[in-house]
Structures are given as C-alpha cells and as structure tokens.
From TrEMBL:
<feature type="binding site">
    <location>
        <position position="171"/>
    </location>
    <ligand>
        <name>ATP</name>
    </ligand>
</feature>
<feature type="binding site">
    <location>
        <position position="125"/>
    </location>
    <ligand>
        <name>ATP</name>
    </ligand>
</feature>
<keyword id="KW-0547">Nucleotide-binding</keyword>
<comment type="similarity">
    <text>Belongs to the Thz kinase family.</text>
</comment>
<dbReference type="GO" id="GO:0004417">
    <property type="term" value="F:hydroxyethylthiazole kinase activity"/>
</dbReference>
<feature type="binding site">
    <location>
        <position position="50"/>
    </location>
    <ligand>
        <name>substrate</name>
    </ligand>
</feature>
<dbReference type="Pfam" id="PF02110">
    <property type="entry name" value="HK"/>
</dbReference>
<dbReference type="InterPro" id="IPR029056">
    <property type="entry name" value="Ribokinase-like"/>
</dbReference>
<keyword id="KW-0808">Transferase</keyword>
<feature type="binding site">
    <location>
        <position position="198"/>
    </location>
    <ligand>
        <name>substrate</name>
    </ligand>
</feature>
<comment type="function">
    <text>Catalyzes the phosphorylation of the hydroxyl group of 4-methyl-5-beta-hydroxyethylthiazole (THZ).</text>
</comment>
<keyword id="KW-0479">Metal-binding</keyword>
<keyword id="KW-0784">Thiamine biosynthesis</keyword>
<keyword id="KW-0067">ATP-binding</keyword>
<comment type="pathway">
    <text>Cofactor biosynthesis; thiamine diphosphate biosynthesis; 4-methyl-5-(2-phosphoethyl)-thiazole from 5-(2-hydroxyethyl)-4-methylthiazole: step 1/1.</text>
</comment>
<keyword id="KW-0460">Magnesium</keyword>
<dbReference type="InterPro" id="IPR000417">
    <property type="entry name" value="Hyethyz_kinase"/>
</dbReference>
Amino acid sequence: MQPDLLPGHIAASILLQLRTTSPLVHCMTNDVVQSFTANVLLAIGAAPAMVIEAQEAAQFSPVAHALLINIGTLTAERRHAMLAAIHAANESSTPWVLDPVAVGGLAFRTQFAHEVLALKPAVIRGNASEILALASGHSGGRGVDSIDDALSALPAAQALAQRVGTIVVVTGERDYITDGENSWSVAGGGVLMTRVVGTGCALSAVVAACCSLPGSKLDNVAAACQFMKIAGQQAISESRGPGSFIPAFLDALYGLHVEALA
Ligand SMILES: Nc1ncnc2c1ncn2[C@@H]1O[C@H](COP(=O)(O)OP(=O)(O)OP(=O)(O)O)[C@@H](O)[C@H]1O
Ligand SMILES: Cc1ncsc1CCO
Ligand SMILES: [Mg+2]
C-alpha cells in the first residue's frame, strides 16, 4: 500500500522556515558532486561548507546546523575525517545524514556504512538498491545507480529505520520517507533527474538542511524530497535534455514559492 502524500501546506511552512533560518550544512561529500551540491543548497536558501580535513571537520561539525556524510568517493583518509566529524557532531547534538552511495558491492565503503549506523544518523537517504543493500545485505545496484524499484524497498526501509532508530528515505519514481512506523510518499520529478549526476546526493544535502529545522523531523525530511521533486518536474518541462536541465533546476529551486506549495 502507498503511504499518504505529504500535504502541501506542511511543505510550504517548512520552506518558509528553511528560507528564514538558512541552515549551514557541513558537507563531506564525493568529488563528483561538490559544486552541484553547494549550488543546490544556495539556490534553495541554505548555506554549504565543504570542510574535509579531519581536524577542521571535527571543529566545524558542531558549529554547523547539520552534517552530510556521503561515501561516493570514500578513501582511508576521508573515512578518518568523517568519523571525527560524526563524533563531534554527536557530542554537540548536530544532526547528521548518511548517503550510502553504492553500498553493497564494494567492501571498504560497505564496512564503513555499517560501522556508522551505530553512530546514529538522523536520516539515511539512498536509492532503492542502496537501501536494500544496507538493510538486508543485498549486493547493491549497478555502480552508483539503482536497479530496484523504490516501493519494493519500502519494507526494508521501514525495518532499517526501526533497527537503527532513524528516518530512512528511499528515492525513485516516488520517494518514501519513513521512521519505521509512519511514512510519507512524495511524487513528481521525472526520469531526466537520473540523467545528470548528483540529484540524489544534492537531495541528501537538502535533507540535512531540513532536518536541522524545528518541528517533526519526518515532515521536514519529506518536505526536502518534495522541494526537489517540484523543482525537478518544473525544470524538465523547461529544458531540452541534461545540459539545459541543470541551470533550469537551480532556477526552479531558487524560485520555489511558499504560496504555490500551499
Ligand atoms: N523514475 C523517476 N521518476 C521521477 N523522479 C525520479 C526518478 N528516479 C529518481 N528520481 C528523483 O531523482 C532524484 C535522485 O534520486 P535517485 O534515486 O536517482 O538518487 P541517486 O541514485 O542517489 O542519485 P545520484 O547518485 O545521482 O546522486 C530524487 O529527487 C528522485 O525523487
Ligand atoms: C558517479 C559517481 N561515482 C562515485 S560517486 C558518484 C556520484 C553519484 O553518486
Ligand atoms: Mg546516490
């Protein structure tokens, strides 16, 4: 059964809060998506900072409003820096988000992803293959891409959320957001969002921004998914392919209207 859609008036009030507070997001993300992620955060009204050296990362994560850990181009040095940042974030109650890119097939990142589950991410956001792999030891997708359907991964997402005590987001044609007990679904977007790299990685950064806001964390995280779906759908209608999609997507995020969402 499909979970309910997030009501527009909830997303609208969360967008207003996001724009008013402009959360600072400490991004420890992969090499492929650094600039796109920073631009997505700026376009929607949050603020990015990519601080990656271990000593600085541990100093910075308590100052930021949220921390993003994305394992897309994990190295031994980055692993060390990410652990330092997560521990410092936890000591200062800064929420942190895990994006388990390509978890399952590759041993080093898979071991790291399982290790940090014990450090209580506030949210885990992945595509269907990543969530299935993390929840049930399944072998993962095709590299960084999903080969599974998001709805089919919802039971695994719910079980993972319950086991870890966190919120899990599975993205795809629809996005599903669950704390293991209650779930939202978010529709919109389009397949062109998967023909440019980093829409999922950037969503994880927006999720981090939104999970620093007051109120229901489940609603805040679902609203982040809603913002990206709406902007993606609008950008697809205004673009001719992946090249023109990216600027149209940034413009659509920038132009998201609180009144229109409501
Ligand atoms: N078939 C689809 N139809 C509509 N929207 C989609 C579809 N697939 C993905 N999306 C949207 O694209 C964005 C990225 O989701 P996806 O599941 O592709 O993440 P990902 O694989 O982690 O991406 P990346 O690794 O490139 O950052 C989300 O906003 C999601 O809702
Ligand atoms: C393509 C790619 N390779 C490692 S990380 C990444 C970005 C998408 O997750
Ligand atoms: Mg991804």
